[in-house]
Amino acid sequence: MQNSEPIWDLVDEHRKEFEALSDRVWGMPEIAYTEYASVAEHAAMLREQGFSVTENVAGIPTAVMGEAGEGGPIIAILGEYDALPGLSQEAGIAEPKPIPGTGHGHGCGHNLLGSAAMLAATAIKDWLEKTGKPGRVRYYGCPAEEGGAAKSFMAREGAFDGVDAAITWHPSAFTEVAKAQSLANTRMDFKFTGRSSHAAAAPHLGRSALDAVELMNVGVNYLREHVPDSSRIHYAMLDSGGIAPNVVQAKSAVRYAIRSRDLKGMLDLNERVKQVALGAAMMTGTTVDISIMSAVSNLLGNRPLEEAMQRNLERLGPVPFDAEDKAFATKIQATLSDEDIDNAYLRTGVPRREDTPLCDFIVSLDTHGEPMIGSTDVGDVSWLMPTVQAHAATIAIGTPGHSWQVTAQGKTPAAHKGMTHAAKMMAGTAIDLLEDADLLAAAKADHQARVGKTAYVCPIPADVQPPLQPRPKEAA
Ligand SMILES: [Zn+2]
């Protein structure tokens, strides 16, 4: 492996500090908009490394930004640090064993995500200082990726203004340049109001909000046949109106997630779902209050940046896992089904390899599997500027996303190697952009062609605020 370019040496110089940061954040799992301790760790590390720090970015107390450098283009490196509820788990063991406490855990590896992103930003800052070249680097600590769409709110508030290109990554089972595939997604609440009455003595006087929710769900289930294949619609009951069957339920509420391949498709589908809700209200003599809680745009790819990152990856080679890393990953794989492992390869498009518990190869840029299509708030950033994402292997192949196995692998030596690798992929790509004006111009032209004439409009309406959470007293 020719792992010796100056920018990668700068990453290696700092790796221990950032592995420790990642481990600390792993140990303080905080869910969407409650990341007060995690953001404090990130802000402190930014100051320690000499960044100028902006807190409370876009009015979000758990968002932070650090900037360094002068003049030139501005490269943003995006990090995250939110955890997931219900995924508490001891580190380094291959059996489910929650840690007593909140029940939260880093089941998506965002402890690694934020630390590697800031590690890359720090190496870029050092490189700018050493070379004296014009250019600026910004690290954005973005909270609430899991269901909170913080980057979309930050995008709407102009937090990314002035940035020329954005780079990020996600922990993964495979080492590759991420394929830009995600769905635009809206979370919308439907609150029905009717009239309660005695369900036996005076049912004719009641107007059931629960009936309205049920009819809405039935209506949407019929709508499914007539939407594009790539669309997804799912719902969860927020309020079923109470537990008494002898009361006509006067209030009931349901939350929908409405996903579509692109922004326009999502906005169209949102309207169709709203019409179904209005129909349900009409059928039941109730009223409905409809509000968007959050939304994210689909991801836009960027071929010049993806190719530049792939060139970095090819020079870098695979993550240098050793026999011990593989031995633990083999234990984790023993907790998975054969189907989990098959599925991981299918999603990535790489033929299955036996005796390969960890990804000890790199995936080529033109390998296309059947990616698992979810949604991410990186989508909104990708509509504003050329954006590219890396995947670096930090977990055993087949590990399901959002699982106790991800939490269990969040502090392993393999995870640390994967995060350093990701930092090198990101920092190397940023240096290419800072040194090569033609690359930046090509990335911008590609971006412009994808955005087309439709200027980006944040899918979250201007009057919707992020669901900020109060600072816990002990952390104040
Ligand atoms: Zn994630």
TrEMBL record:
> What InterPro entries does the annotation carry?
Amidohydrolase, Aminobenzoyl-glu_utiliz_pB, Bact_exopeptidase_dim_dom, Peptidase_M20, Peptidase_M20/M20A_hydrolases
Entry keywords, A to Z: Hydrolase
* Source species, domain of life: Bacteria
Keyword presence, Hydrolase: yes
| Protein name per the record | Aminobenzoyl-glutamate utilization protein B
* Protein species of origin: Neorhizobium huautlense
